[in-house]
Design goal:
The protein is an alpha/beta fold. The protein has 2 domains: 4-33 and 157-238, Rossmann fold; 37-154, Rossmann fold (3-Layer(aba) Sandwich). It has helices spanning 13-22, 58-65, 79-88, 105-115, 135-140, 162-169, 181-193, 210-213, 228-238; strands spanning 4-7, 28-30, 34-38, 52-54, 75-77, 94-96, 123-128, 146-156, 173-178, 204-207, 221-224. The strands form 2 sheets. Strands 3-8-7-4-5-6 form a 6-stranded mixed beta sheet. A 5-stranded parallel beta sheet has the order 2-1-9-10-11, with helices on both faces. Strand 7 (123-128), helix 5 and strand 8 form a beta-alpha-beta unit. It is elongated.
């Protein structure tokens, strides 16, 4: 019986990831749980006045890249995936939350609070229309001037693709890859609506961060896999 790894991240990144995994002999299915729309018109006209640009999302970095921005913009991100996106898009002056700290929005806010000076100018916080932790509010409470710009919008899927349901019903899902808590919540909601939620217990959840893995406590196993290499390694153990 063939077994598949389901990729739930938005297109076109989902197909890029599928191609990489299939080059390692891992069969994939793609069923995005989110659709992303970039909103570059929401970016400030001038970015030079900000001492730092904070974001937890690769989509926000992609929005920046649609403009004629300096590659030296001081980007503060969360996780290797965002740093990799920044590098791929030409931004070379990027930092991320240090190892040892949880890779989440609150850690980014705390890191910025401890590393930046409110007297050195305002901070730009780039986010989507749905956020769990408002970095801007955290930093404003610490005396920073923060401008918040919603530079992308995300809409959740309303149903699972037929091939996803078929793989779940036939016990063919080896693993499901999740890049956000919203994604895993959406996926489980759609599975439960289709009365196949329990089928997920036979698969493993491959999660970008520990924060996301905590939402997969009902799965057979939740593994933190921040890189392609980690995903491949986890899949090989299950094959």
């Amino acid at each position: 019986m063939e077994r598949y790894v389901l990729i739930t991240r938005p297109e076109p990144e989902a197909f890029k990831l599928a191609k990489e995994l299939e080059s390692h002999g891992i069969k994939t299915l793609v069923d995005p749980m989110l659709t992303i729309t970039l909103c570059p018109e929401e970016l400030p006209a001038s970015l030079d006045k900000f001492q730092a640009i904070l974001t937890t999302s690769a989509s926000a970095i992609k929005t920046l890249a649609t403009q004629n921005c300096s590659p030296a913009l001081p980007l503060w991100c969360v996780g290797d995936a965002s740093i990799a996106t920044a590098s791929e898009l030409g931004f070379y002056n990027s930092v991320t939350v240090p190892m040892g700290m949880p890779q989440n929005a609150l850690s980014l806010a705390q890191y910025a609070q401890n590393s930046l000076n409110p007297n050195n100018g305002p901070i730009l916080y780039l986010c989507g229309n749905v956020i769990q932790t408002d970095i801007g509010e955290v930093l404003q409470a610490c005396g920073f001037e923060v401008r918040k710009s919603i530079v992308y919008k995300s809409e959740v899927a309303t149903k699972l693709r037929p091939e996803t349901c078929e793989a779940l019903n036939q016990g063919q899902l080896l693993a499901v890859i999740f890049y956000s808590r919203r994604t895993i919540d959406t996926f489980m909601g759609l599975c439960n609506r289709s009365n196949i939620g329990r089928k997920c217990q036979s698969a493993i959840a491959l999660c970008l961060s520990q924060n996301i893995a905590e939402s997969a406590s009902d799965w057979r196993q939740a593994i933190v896999t921040p890189t392609i290499q980690d995903i491949v390694k986890a899949c090989y153990k299950e094959l």
